[in-house]
Amino acid sequence: MMEHCYSLIIMSLVGLFLKTCASTVVPDSKPNVVLIMADDLGIGDLGCFGNFTLRTPNIDRLCKEGIKLTQHIAAEALCTPSRSAFLTGRYPVRTGMVSRDLNRAHYVLSSLGVRGGLPRNEITFAATLKKHGYSTALIGKWHQGLNCKYRNDHCHHPNHYGFDYFYGEPHTLASPCKRMPTRDTELAIESRLWFCMELLIIAVLTLTVGKLTHLVSIPWLFIISIIFFGFLVAFFWFFSFQNSVFWNCILMRQQEITEQPMKAERSGFIMMNEAVSFIKRNKDRPFLLFYSLLHVHVPLPTSNEFIGISKHSFYGDYVEEMDFLVGKVLDTIDADGLTNNTIVYFTSDHGGHLEAMRGRVHVGGYNGIYKGGKGMAGWEGGIRVPGMIRWPGILTAGKVIEEPTSLMDIYPTLAAVVGGTLPQDRVIDGRDLMPLLKGEIRHSEHEFLYHYCGPFLHAARWHPKNSDAVWKVHFVTPDFQPKGAIGCYDILFCQCLGENVTHHDPPLLFELSRDPSESKPLSPDNEPMYDTVIKTVKRAVKKFQKTLKPVPEQLTLYNKDLVWLRPCCGVFPFCLCDKQVGNFTM
User: How confident is the model over 256-310, as pLDDT tens digits?
Assistant: First the structure.
């Protein structure tokens, strides 16, 4: 009898142990992956990174339930190059996603009418996970190119880079994408131009038929003159509004345009519902979701439900709307029982946009204590971004890691998690974060990180092995305008080269663990390590640059807007459609 009781007790304890293990250990060797990237979000815009006036409870929840990365670094301070590095784990200077052009507009892909884009031979984390049986999707912003030779060749479409499913904006948010008083005037002008063109075409056809049937007696020269006049109107219309709402502000499902122009105020909720739907469709198999938010890029097309809810005007409203959308995705993961088997990562593509203004109101992000912002690839405010990663049962909740990490680390980290191998025919600049995240190692595997503005090296950081110091060396810095400002307000974006930058010889030196705001430059007079640090970093830069191979620059030669490459829903130039059905609810 006693033996039977002991057996029951042992079996109960074993059962309890197994049940406990089942609730804490990931049940599948291939976890789901949800990567969430904000656009232009400042590191100081989130509650868990020190903002006490903006409400971001859902994103803050990831900090609480996961690991917070406080020195998480973007490879560039602008959208297109930073995102290419995130996708490939490689510096943009290796892939050609850079520009030597003095025209700042060419530092990103400026239009859907350009031929440039992420080279097709580049391998992304989506392609690697797809090889390992993952269902993959990109919902949201792409900004890595679209067409090469023809309007519908879609040579740079996400489907070619490992994403099974795409729904979103192939370009990026721009000022014409939101209806504002000035934008309404522009749209009214465009509408009248369309109407005039239609009348002109009807008039030419009528006169031509009348002339051929001898019903009207007018010289052919008159008809030809009208045609020539119409051609001039059309020509100037296309090029006057070449970056207008009709050409760049579109939504696509897979390779079909669903909205042209898109209704930006509702697009965030449509994309959130697409993300939720993808999770639900794939909950019984491993999936990768890259949820690439349009938030919080200007022009801040906030839905009516969130207008006026924050303490920080237009920008604050858009941040709080973003947090709501992220919360809906997290709630879906929880509701479908996927929490313990899903890696969730959140970041921004670069720092907040200091020069973004609407009248006298600042509508860009807040970069906290860090100097600089979007477009400033050397200063911390342009490249230090919020980073957090959650994997219940595997990663310690509430942990904070202050070591240097990079957006480029996500690809090698995911490859290691799924048992994949990285490409052996190219340099991968990212590092597997899992040993650092799990506490197996204490020190970042990035001894050096290089901070490029386009193809020009502006700064580098050195985190010596077995040391807590993080040295930052600036070779070039942008000139803030007007003098004494904290950004380039007179020219809207800081430059990478030319007369609006300063070359430092000797270089500027900061020690970030003591001076994270880069406000106290060091010199041989106040820092005994000055000469050693400068020499070490210069040697590292020289060694790194020897690994760079010449590649075509996608943002220079190929970044010219071509009318015949612009996507069109309908018969060109009448490119208007709305194929959305539902998907607008909160």
Answer: 999 998 999 999 999 999 999 999 999 999 999 999 999 999 999 999 999 999 9
CA dist 554 and 203 (Å) reads 44
577 CB-contact burial (10 Å; exposed 0-12 / middle 13-18 / buried 19+): middle
CA-wise closest residue to 171 among 125, 117, 211, 127: 117
Q: Give the single-character DSSP code of 378.
A: S
Q: What are 448's strand-pairing partners?
A: 462
DSSP assignment of 199-225, as one string? HHHHHHHHHHHHHHTTSS---HHHHHH
79 assigned to active site = yes
Catalytic residue, candidates 79, 494, 568, 575? 79
Q: What's the length of the chain?
A: 586
Tell me the DSSP string of 462-511: E--TT----EEEEEEEEPPBSTT-SSBTTTSS--SSGGGEEEEEEEEEEE
Give the pairing type, strands 67-73 and 399-401.
parallel
pLDDT level of residue 224 (50, 70, 90 thresholds): confident
Q: Alpha-carbon distance 127 to 426, whole Å?
A: 15
- The Cα 30–Cα 418 span in angstroms is 6
Res. 191 pLDDT band, cuts 50 70 90: low
- Contact between 55 and 47 under an 8 Å Cβ cutoff? The reply is yes
Please identify which of the residues 63, 72, 106, 143 carries the catalytic annotation.
Answer: 143
Question: Do 80 and 39 touch, CB atoms closer than 8 A?
Answer: no
Whether 143 is catalytic is: yes
Integer Cα distance of 573 and 586 in angstroms? 34
The H helix count followed by the E strand count for the chain is 14, 20
- In which band, very low, low, confident or very high, does the pLDDT at 228 lie, cut at 50, 70 and 90? confident
Q: State residue 189's pLDDT score.
A: 54
Contacts of 554 (CB under 8 A, 6+ apart): 95, 96, 97, 98, 109, 116, 117, 118, 119, 145
What is the amino acid identity at position 192?
Answer: R
pTM for the full model?
Answer: 0.88
Q: What's the confidence (pLDDT) of residue 530?
A: 98
Query: Does residue 134 contact residue 418 with C-beta atoms inside 8 Å?
Result: yes
CA 17 to chain centre: 44
